[in-house]
Amino acid sequence: LDEQKKLLSKTLKIPFGEHAVNASWVAVQELEKLGLGHDINLHVAEVPVEYQAVQRLLPSLWKQQLPQLVVHVGVSGMASTVTLEQCGHNQGYMRLDNCSFCPESRCCLEGGPDCIQSVIDMDTVCKRVNSSGLGVSVSVSKDAGRYLCDYTYYTSLFLGEGRSAFVHVPPLGKPYSAEQLARALRAVILEMLELMEHSEGKKHCVHDQ
User: Which residues carry out catalysis (predicted)?
Assistant: First the structure.
């Protein structure tokens, strides 16, 4: 077990708007069936679309699982590709969550940096997966939307010192099936772990100034 890579894959539970079926959760369940290989320990969990739940659950999950990498997955009605988010943002949270709550400070962490970058170069991951012939298009974004996706990502990046990622997937059938999304998530995560392995020992600046 000491030699196993630990990966914590979390998915946002998003039952709002037009999303009758949560593509992110369905895709992650399919990913769990596929697995990531015998030497990678994959842990899957749901996180409610609630600011206070994020603040309560993420610290304990990071502490209990001791993951090498945390990958969050959420659905975006605006996405037509599997979208890799490069960074999380601290401020600008104005929308109410599923409990009709919004932080009074409108931020994730009072006094925290405005933006935290993942230690993973998402452009490199994107290029590698797109050139692999997978049949699912991958793109990169630097704006996760200033709602629970962004809020969760920033919190995780802060707790993990940048060892986190967020992947937005499109709704099911627009244009990809759950199985296609799962294969894309698998390819993306394996590339992320590969990059992290080759960058071990290097110093990363994860906080934008």
Answer: 149
